[in-house]
Amino acid sequence: MNWLLFAAVVVIALAGVLFIHGASYPHPTARYWQSQAMFVGIGIVVFLVVTLIDYRWVKWAAVPVYLLSVGLTALTYSPLGVVKNNAKCWLRLPVIGVFQPGQMAAVGGILAIALFLSYARRWHPALRIAITGIIAAPAMILILKQPDLGMTIAWVPVILTMLYLCGMPLRWLAVVLLTGLTIMPLVMNFGLKPYQRDRVVTFLDPDVDPRGTSYGVNQSLIAIGSAGIRGKGFKAPETQLELGLIPMAEAHTDYIFATIGEQWGFLGGAALIAAFGVLIFACMITAVKATDLFGVLIVGGVTAQVFFHVFQNIGMTIALMPITGLPLPLVSYGGTFALVLMFSFGLVNSVWVHSRGGADDAGES
Fold first, then answer.
1. Among 109, 250, 337, 362, which is 20 to 30 Å from 296 by CA?
2. What are the φ and ψ backbone dihedral angles of 93, each rounded to 5 degrees?
3. What is residue 240's three-state secondary structure?
4. If DSSP codes are grouped into helix, strand and coil, which group holds residue 154?
5. Helical residues (DSSP H) of the chain, grouped into ranges
6. In 3-state terms, what secondary structure has residue 199?
7. For residues 44 and 352, what is the distance between their CA atoms, to the nearest angstrom?
8. pLDDT (tens digit, 9 = 90+) per residue, 164-223?
9. Does residue 92 sit in helix, strand or coil?
């Protein structure tokens, strides 16, 4: 076992339950923390079960899992789709209930791209980039049109990281970045909803709409900035949260770090960021230990995804990034995301457990 990884995952997940409880206490009927605790418990079991499975066997399931997740994401456009916060990102199925298939597609995409790149390492860079884009495009387009801008953007650092780890020359990665910047105006004007464009505009100039689009982030800045070093206390009265100035529907999800900063202060926020640093470091040393390219790419993709989620979520609450609605891993409320993350970290731990030396493995690394 990579005990550092396991400890970081469990500590952050349990702290997340506490933070969700603190963020939802103004609603005495809300039981989000209890639901999250249940998903964390199930997720730990998933983590341990996936750890026992040799990650090399996942190669056989990579393509079916990705195709299934893309198919479920497409079903969100059917009557089975559920609309929340102006986005039709959720799917309601009998027995299973409501879940977000886009989260599954992200992990399925990592597996599918890792499988392709591990076998195509000697192909021409342009061909590898093109086929990687073809693999990722269906899920990214479906997620963008839901619309879920944050989840779509999260694919970009994952793909770039995996291309880099498979030996892609830096000049080709620069071409990908420049191409993305070139088409950004087209995405802004034709791929985003009006309220999403407004979020980008108010990020560039928060004074444009202080009582509208930028209201939430301004209240988040006040909450975090007024908390001081030690914060105002767990479930403290007369806070931005209790007064309803932080959007109540998102206080335990998108704006969870604002409530953490207000209640626990700079020390609490810094401790949480440090815990994520330990988690990412544990993933990185797992990638170093991996003995084949497939294992390196899985760990690299998961690490990039987690890092970007943390950077984006915390960044948008302190006005360093535009509002995109991306959750904070293992902390924001969400059963689907918690289970998907536990599955992903289980894969990372499987790479640690099942990596072994040998001529065959060394030849692939």
1. 337
2. -120, 150
3. coil
4. coil
5. 3-24, 32-52, 59-75, 101-119, 125-144, 149-153, 155-165, 170-186, 194-204, 215-225, 256-289, 293-317, 335-354, 359-364
6. helix
7. 17
8. 999 999 999 998 888 888 887 777 777 677 777 777 777 777 666 666 677 778 888 999
9. strand
